[in-house]
Design brief:
With 215 residues, the chain is an alpha/beta fold. It has 6 helices and 9 strands, in the order βββαββαααβαβαββ. The chain is globular, with a radius of gyration of 17 Å.
Amino acid sequence: MSMSTLQPAIQATGLSFAFGGTKVLEEVSLDVPWGTVTAMTGPNGAGKSTLVELLAGVLSPQDGVIERAADVALVVQRPAAPETLCVTVRDVVTMGTWGDRRHGRGPRSARERARIAGLAIARVEMGGLERRPFSALSGGQRQRALLAQGLARSAEILILDEPAAGLDTESQGRTRRILAEEAARGIAVLCVTHDHADIAAADRVTRLDRGTIVS
């Protein structure tokens, strides 16, 4: 792994971002350390989703610098899916293995990708649903499938945007356990959440309000 006690998994300094003329983030600086679950909380509209997309590399900051020490897997909310989306749970989870070159040792074989996807599906307890269309799943099941996709990515940094959304109490607890297990392996986990149990279980808590870090 690329982990170092001297360098955080992600180090962001002075991030600013605006949509049109509306400032969303202003001078945001934070570190995401290895081997911890960091909960990011704050009111709706505070800029949390924009910040995690910047940290994951989906968006580019208009000002500021982001340093990532390793590969990032981003798990986002997708509560809705068109009925014409012809992919199964297995397809969605296997997508997480695409492009994984095992740190320069070449691409994984199809057999290895299938094995990794199967393990991820089992971890979120969706065994038996592998052939079910993604569009036929409940909102909570879709969240679990997307979490499995993120796990299948085998990235050293895992960022999740509201992973508890749409989940029942049992599934929320399972997700917290999975994230704690990943952190115990040394993975850097950053989780956007409003859930009090998620916040209480986190190793670190960062609060974002009106586009700035307030704690």
